[in-house]
Specification:
It is a single chain. The chain has two helices and 30 strands. It is mainly beta and 355 residues long.
């Protein structure tokens, strides 16, 4: 499991243990979705500690996973082309020296080139072409957490690690100082103007060069009852842009939508507030929000939450079940892919065309 997800997972357990005092209601049984399993029978190695699911412009799935190779532990970069899984590339992981993958996402630029971060370098690859770019010392901070990274509209790679934001134009790095102790969990770039928004352990940041703005407490409208109050945003775990450039924020205050002028809080429902609960967040082309909340796959549509039953629930007939979601991705046809761990080491990917 990626380090960030391990950290969030432990906090999710605490959230469940203290649900009675935070007002968390037990999840409803959930509705059924038409799930299609993505076959992984041809894998030459099992998925271990898988990363986020990623989808490129061709609709191919990508993920990172470790697997043993003799006395070594290798990082594998896997590609699914709609029919077969291919082990695209491997990198030596000399853990505990922590030289393996750090980023959870694999991002693609307009040319089809893909980018990911290792502990000491940035990697780009396309077909058999692979390039390596050393990371500045400032970006090699706390290896216990994967770096957050994204691409801006000019093709620059944006990375956050430790107390710095790094912007790489393919040749040189620009470094932006962040407040001491900032730990970034997710990072997105606004499509229209290259503003960099990132979620951290103490709130939400916006960087529009040269200005850095922090949102710690904001006036939030409770969508359920129409009341407003100043509340802390808290730890921000995941971010996503909507179709009208509204920013969706998964944080300890719940699920927040920022329209640019107003903060709408949807987190007053069954997953309540003041806990670490939202681990994944995506918005499809229709503006429907899909999220993973305390391990449940959920949809927000027309201000109504729907929880969907896990397709792997009927495989869980022992006390050794995890039934944990590692990844969520949506392709250009609005098909949703979910990466589930049924039992330790038993990783399965499912797709649903649910709208």
């Amino acid at each position: 499991m990626p380090a960030t997800l391990r950290y969030l997972g432990s906090l999710c357990v605490l959230a469940l243990l203290f649900s009675s005092c935070d007002g968390i209601e037990p999840p409803e049984p959930g509705e059924m979705a038409d799930w299609i399993r993505i076959d992984n029978e041809n894998l030459t190695e099992p998925f271990l500690s898988p990363s986020e699911l990623n989808i490129d412009a061709n609709g191919d799935l990508w993920l990172q996973s470790t697997f043993p190779s003799g006395a070594d532990l290798l990082n594998g970069l896997w590609q699914y082309n709609g029919q077969d899984w291919n082990l695209y590339q491997t990198f030596l992981d000399s853990f505990p020296d922590e030289r393996g993958f750090r980023s959870q996402k694999i991002i693609s630029d307009a040319s089809g080139k893909k980018w990911l971060a290792l502990s000491e370098e940035l990697i780009s690859f396309r077909a058999q072409e692979l390039e390596r770019f050393p990371l500045p010392d400032e970006l090699m901070g706390d290896n216990l957490f994967p770096v957050a990274h994204a691409l801006d509209n000019d093709g620059n790679v944006i990375i956050s690690s430790g107390d710095y934001l790094g912007i790489f134009d393919g040749q040189a790095w620009e470094l932006v100082d962040l407040p001491p102790g900032t730990q970034v969990f997710d990072l997105v770039v606004k499509p229209s103007n290259n503003e960099i928004w990132f979620g951290a352990q103490n709130g939400l940041f916006r960087y529009a060069a040269p200005q850095l703005q922090f949102f710690g407490e904001v006036d939030q409208l409770d969508v359920a009852n129409g009341t407003s109050e100043i509340r802390a945003v808290g730890l921000v775990t995941t971010l996503a842009w909507g179709q009208n450039e509204e920013l969706w924020i998964g944080c300890t205050a719940g699920l927040i939508q920022f329209t640019g002028t107003r903060w709408n809080n949807y987190g007053q429902g069954s997953f309540a507030t003041n806990v670490i609960s939202i681990s994944h967040l995506q918005v499809d082309s229709q503006g429907t929000v899909w999220l993973v909340v305390l391990g449940d796959f959920m949809r927000l549509k027309n201000d109504v939450f729907t929880t969907y039953q896990s397709p792997t629930a009927n495989q869980c007939n022992t006390g050794n079940c995890t039934n944990q979601i590692f990844g969520l991705a949506i392709d250009q046809l609005d098909r949703k892919y979910v990466l589930w761990e049924v039992t330790p080491g038993n990783i399965q990917i499912y797709r649903t065309d649910q709208d």
